[in-house]
Amino acid sequence: MAMTKNRKPIRSSFVLLVATVLLAPGSLAQDEGKSTADLEQQFIAVLSSDAPEAEKAIACKQLAVHGSSKAVPELAKYVADPHLSSWARIALEVIPGPEADEALRVGAESAAGTVLVGTINSIGVRRDLAAVEILVRHLKHGDPAVASAAAVALGKIGDPQGIEALLRELNGADARLKNAAAQGCILYAEALLQAGESAKAYEVYERVRGAQVPLTRIVEASRGAILTGGPKGEQLLVELLGSSNKNLVHIALSAYRELPGTEIDETLAQQLTEVDPDVAALMLYAMSDRPHGKISSTIVRALDQESPVVQKAAVRVLGRVGDETCLPNLLELAGGDDEELAALAEEAIEALPGDRVDARLVSMLTESDDALCVELLEAIGHRGIRCTDSVSPFLDHTNSEVRRAALFAASQTISQDELSLLVARLLESAPDADDSAIREALRVASVRMPDREATAADLAKAMERTNSVEAKVALLDVLGAMGGTTALQTLRDAALHGDAELQDTATRLLGRWMSVDAAPVLLDVSTSLQDDKYKVRALRGYLRLTRQFQFGDEERAAMCRNALEAATRPDEQRLVLEVLERYPSPHTLEVAKEAQQIDAISSAAKQTTSAIRKRLDEDNGN
Amino acid sequence: MLSKRTAASRRDFLKTAAKVSALAAPMFVPSEVLGRNGATPPSERVIVGGIGIGNRGTYDLGCFLKQPDVQFVAVCDVKETRRSAIKQLVDQRYGNARCDTYRDLRELLDRSDIDAVLIATGPNWHATASTCAANAGKDMYCEKPVTKNISQSLLLADTMRRSGRIFQAGTQRRNVPHFAFACELARTGKLGKLKRVYAHPAGMHAMMSGWLPAETEPDKQVVDWDLYLGPAAWRPFNARLLDGFNFEKGGGLVGGGVLEWGSHCVDLCQWAVGDCLPPVEYDAPKDGQMVARYKSGVELILRESGWLPLGSCPVRFEGETGWVEAGDSGKMVLSSPELIAGHDVAEIGGYPATFHVREFVDCVKTRNQPKSNADAASRAHIACHAANIALFLDRQVKYDNANNEFVGDEEANRLRSEALRGPWRI
Q: Which residues form the Gfo/Idh/MocA-like oxidoreductase bacterial type C-terminal domain (chain B) (predicted)?
C-alpha cells in the first residue's frame, strides 16, 4: 500500500515538487535524520538566499513545522511581499512566542491592500493583545477591507479597548464598517457566552440588535440574545416566532433547539395555536429535536388542529419522538380518508421508538376490527416484532386481507423453528388467492433465516412429504432464492430425477444460479439429461458462469473445453468461442485451436484463434 | 370492514409524493409546499445559486434541477467556459435566458433573493466559501471534503451554529439506503456492542502541496487566477493547476485518500458511532492499516480496501454479535440475514446525490438539521485530518477533543491550521 516512508533530501524533493505539484510525505519530515534545529537552519538559509520564490515558499511551509523564534526575522522579511506574504504567515501564525506577534504587527504597519488584510487576519488568529492599538487605528483606514479586517480581528481578541471601539463603530456612518464591527462584536459575545458570562454577552448582542446593521448580523445577534437573555431571551423568542421576516423566524427556531430547560417547551406549546400554521409546523419540527418528555403530548394535541400543514408535521415528528401512547391516534389516522396523512401515520407507527410500542401493538390485535388488524399486522411485520403466537391465529382468518397481512407479519418475524407454519400452509393450500402470498412469505422467511443449510434441509424434506407438483415447484423456487450447498444439491436431484415440471423448474433455477459452485452441477446435468431442452438450458447456464464470473485463465479454459465437449449444437459451440475470445490467454488460445477440429465451427474457431493471438501479441508489445 | 386503501397503496402514494427512503430521518416533499397540480407556488420555492460548478457540481446541479420546489437562478465561476456552460444548461432546463453569471462569489452572495447556494468549487475554497455564504445569510450544500484542516472544521461548525444556517456536506452516502441501513444497525445496537468500525479510503498517504512553473496568466474574464487561488497561498498561474484534483485539498497537508475518500467512509464510521466526538488516539500506520480509538474504546480502522468486492471505499462495522459491510456498488453483506428482516433496503450503486439534495431542500424549509450537518461533518473531517497528521508524522498522535489540540505534540498542533491568503478569512 501507499503508506510508505520516503525520506528524501529536501533539495531533491523540491525538484519533484516543482515538477509535479505534490510532494511525497516523508520528504517534508525530518529527512536524513536531521534534528529540528538543523532543518530550521537549512530553511532559514533558503529564505536568506537568492533562491527562487518557489523554494522560499516551501521553506516557509517547512518552518511552520520546524521553525522557532530564530526563523522569525527571515520570515518577517516576506510579510509585506505580495507573492510570499501568505507563505510567510503560514509559519508565523503557528510559531509560538512574542517574536512572531511582533513580526505581524510590523507587517500591519508596512503592508498594503490584501496583503495587509491577510496580515491583520493572522493577528486576529493569534489574538495578539499588543496589536489592539494598531487595529483600532486601522478601523479608520481608507481601505474598507482593511478597516473591516481590523474590526473582526478586534472581536476575536476581545480586549475591552478594542470592543469599545467596535461598539462605537456600530453607530458610525460607514455601512461596511458597521457590518464588520457587528461581526466583531458577535464574535466577542460568542466567546463570553462560551465562558458563561451570559449577562455581558446579552448586553453586546442587544447593542448589535439595536444598530442599523445588515439583517444577517441582526439574525446572529438575535440568536445570542435568546440564548443569553433568560426570561427576556424567551420573550424575544416568542416575539420573533411571530415575525413576518422568515430569517428571524428561522433563527428563533434554531435558538429554541439550543435552549436548555423545559419551561420554554411549555411556553411554545401554548403558542402553537397562536402562530401562523406554517410557523406552528416548523415549531413542531423544532420540538422533535428537543429532549422529549412533555413534548410528545404537545405534538399529539397538534394532531387535532384543523390545519393539514400542522397535522402532517405532527405525524412526521411523532414517528421520531412519540411513544406507545400515540398509537391510538396514529392508528386512527392510518385508517382515515386522507391518503397522505394515512400513509404518514403508517410510517410513523413503524418508526415509533421503544419496546413498549411493540407490546402495545401486539396486545391490540385481540381487540381490533379487521381494518385495524391489517394495520397492526403490517406494523408488526415492519417492526420485526417476534410474536408468532399472536400472529398465527390470523393466518386462518376469514378475511383474506387479514390473512395476507398475517402472512406478511409471519414472513418477517417467525424463527427457524417456526418455519413449518408456512411450509404446512404451502403444502396444504389449494391454488387460490392466498397461494402467491404464502409462497412469497415462505421465500422471504427462508431467505432471512440465519442457518441457511438447515432451512434448506427442512424444505427438501418437505418436498419429499408432498405429492403435489405445485408445492414441489414452489419449494424449489424458494430453494433457488436461498442458494447454498443443500439447495444446490436438491435442485440437482430435481433436475436429474424429477418429472418434467420439476426438471423445468430446477434447470431454470440452476441456469440463474449466482455462485460458481453451480458450475459442476450444471455440467453434470447437461451431460446426464436426455431431454435436449433442459440439456441446452443447463449448458447455457454453465457457459454464463464461465463468461461472467472470476476464474483463473487455466480454469476458465478448462471450463470452455468441458463446454465444447458437452455441446451438441453449433449455437452453444459458438458461445464457447465468444468466451474464449473475451478472455485471451495462452490457455484459451489452445482451446480455440482445438475447436478448429469441430467441422460446424471450424471457420469461426480459426477467427477466434486469430483474434486471441492478436490480443496476446499486443499485450506482449509485439 | 376493511378500509379501501391498503397499507401498500398508501406507501405507493408516499412514493409518488417523492418519498425516497424510509430509513433514518424522513425525507419528503411536503405536499403543503406543492400548490395545485403539483406546481410549487413561487413563495414556497427555494431560490438557489451555484458557486464553482465543474464536473461533480454539474451532477449536483442536476439533482437540484430535479426538485420541483427549487429555482436555480445564478452561477458563479472563475472560468468563463463554465459560467457559460452552466448558464446554457440551466436556461435550457427552464426554457428562458434568466440564469445570471458571476465571476466573483461575493457578487452572487450579495443577492438578497437567493436562499441557498450549491458550493462545488475545488476543496481549497469549500470552507471559506461556506463561511462567506453563512455571513451572507445563505443556506448551503457544500461538496466534500468540506475543510482543509482541523481549525477550519471547528470554525465551520461554529459559524453555522452562530448564523443558524442549514449546512449539508456533500457526503451523500448518508442518504443512500444501504449505507444508511448499515449505520443504523451499528448505531442502534443491532450488531451488539460495537467493537470496530472500518473505513477503506483508497490512497492512504499524506502529501504537501506546492506549485508549478509560471505560464502566461489569462485575462481575468477568461480565468480569474486570483479568485481561483482564493484563500490558498499565492503561486504563479499554471494551467495544470486548474481543475487539479488535489489542488490545496488539505491546505499545507494535501489530504490524499484519507481526506478524499475518508470524508465519505470515515464519515459513515462516525455516523455508525452516533456522530460522537472524533477518536482520541491515532496510531502510526502499520502493516497497511491505521488504528484509531474513540474514547469509548471502539476502534476506527483505516485500510486501503475492504474484504468483499462491494465497490469503492466500503465500510464495515463489527459488533459483538454481528457485522455488516457495504460499498458503492449498492450491495451490503450482513453476518446474518435476520438483521434485515422487515426492511426493504433499496440497492442503489454509484454516487447518487438526489436524495441528499432532497433532504437539504427539505431542511431549508423545515430548519431541521440534515444528516450531514456542520457538526457531523466537522467531527468526521477532524478524524480525517488527525489521521492524516499521524500518517504524515508517521507516529502515534493523541487528540484532546475538549481543548481541540494534540497532547504534547507541538508539530502535530502546528498542522491543525494554515494561514489564508488575504483578504479571505474564516
A: 220-426
